[in-house]
């Protein structure tokens, strides 16, 4: 049994990750690929509890260091109990956000040291990196308008426009650093065009 592929979706608030993860799930299922669809922070009972704490505006003020460590604590659980077992049995894993989000939000948004994030990435993930990452990119204003239609903002969505500009810049830097792995998808176009661009990136994997 060959190891499964690990595909992640990334991007700022409201760019369409969840919508397109569901689209890709259907696309792969129609092609009889056995897959696990999951998200970060989250994906296990403990990691989902950490997600609730991280996204809640009601919890006590969370320090930047605690936020970073909680992201990686959730990720450690997720990798051990969901991602690695799935890949080892040959399933593909589609994950809504992964460590590029940490570089973007905690690195770009919160200005935490990249070397600190790299250290935690190596500790928690060992050699595990996504095989392919689709970065959905759109101007911050468009993403926030889309996210706003869904209801009240969570703790991250309540950040400033400058924070999200920094997040977007950090994501685009990740593409420059990892051009083979991360493919940029323009998300400020009609959904059908976004999805055609996604298929164009995914279809070579199926050959
Ligand atoms: N986080 C996460 C960190 O800080 N560090 C980390 O390491 C990790 C892993 C998680 C939060 O945690 C932070 C980042 C996040 O703030 P989340 O819920 O996973 O939160 O992320 P969100 O970005 O908040 O998710 P959203 O659901 O808001 O955004 P999506 O999934 O990008 O957008 P989606 O698919 O829900 O679409 C939003 C709306 O836009 C429409 C959809 O129909 C929907 O109504 N839409 C379009 N409309 C027009 N044209 C298109 N092309 C459209 N595509 C979608």
Summary?
The protein is built from eight helices and five strands. It is α/β, with parallel strands linked by helices.
| Shape designation | globular
Mean pLDDT: 96
Report the portion of residues in β strands.
Answer: 5-15%
The small molecules bound here are: P1-(5'-adenosyl)P5-(5'-thymidyl)pentaphosphate
pLDDT < 50 runs, ≥5 residues: none
So how many helices?
Answer: 8
- Helix % is 40-55%
N-to-C SSE series? EHEHHEHHEHHEH
**CATH top level class name:** Alpha Beta
What gyration radius follows from the Cα positions, in whole Å? 16 Å
Instruction: Please state the second-level CATH architecture.
Output: 3-Layer(aba) Sandwich
Report the structural category.
alpha/beta
Overall number of strands: 5
End-to-end distance: 17 Å
Q: What number of structural domains do the residues give?
A: 1
Strand order of the largest sheet: 2-3-1-4-5
CATH topology: Rossmann fold
Sheet with most strands: 5 strands, parallel
CATH superfamily: P-loop containing nucleotide triphosphate hydrolases
What would your notes on this structure say?
With 207 residues, the protein is of the alpha/beta class. The chain has a single domain (6-206), classed as P-loop containing nucleotide triphosphate hydrolases (Rossmann fold, 3-Layer(aba) Sandwich). Helices cover 54% and strands 13% of the residues. It is built from eight helices and five strands, in the order βαβααβααβααβα. The chain has helices at residues 17-30, 45-55, 64-88, 99-109, 114-125, 140-148, 161-177, 191-202; strands at 6-10, 35-39, 92-96, 132-137, 182-186. The chain has a five-stranded parallel β-sheet with strand order 2-3-1-4-5, with helices on both faces. The longest helix is centred in the middle third of the chain and has 25 residues, at 64-88.
């Amino acid at each position: 049994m060959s190891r499964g592929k690990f595909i992640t979706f990334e991007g700022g608030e409201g760019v369409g990750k969840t919508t397109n993860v569901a689209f890709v799930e259907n696309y792969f299922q129609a092609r009889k690929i056995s897959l696990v669809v999951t998200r970060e922070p989250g994906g296990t009972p403990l990691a989902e509890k950490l997600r609730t704490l991280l996204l809640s505006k009601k919890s006590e003020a969370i320090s930047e260091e605690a936020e970073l460590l909680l992201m990686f604590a959730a990720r450690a659980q997720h990798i051990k109990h969901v991602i690695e077992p799935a890949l080892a049995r040959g399933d593909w894993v589609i994950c809504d956000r992964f460590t590029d989000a940490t570089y973007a939000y905690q690195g770009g948004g919160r200005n935490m040291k990249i070397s600190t994030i790299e250290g935690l990435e190596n500790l928690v993930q060992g050699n595990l990196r996504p095989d392919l990452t689709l970065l959905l990119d759109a101007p911050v204003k468009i993403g926030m308008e889309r996210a706003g239609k869904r209801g009240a903002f969570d703790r991250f969505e309540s950040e400033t426009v400058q924070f999200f500009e920094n997040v977007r810049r950090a994501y685009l830097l990740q593409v420059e650093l990892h051009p083979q792995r991360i493919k940029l998808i323009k998300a400020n176009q009609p959904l059908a065009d976004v999805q055609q661009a996604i298929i164009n990136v995914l279809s070579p994997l199926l050959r």
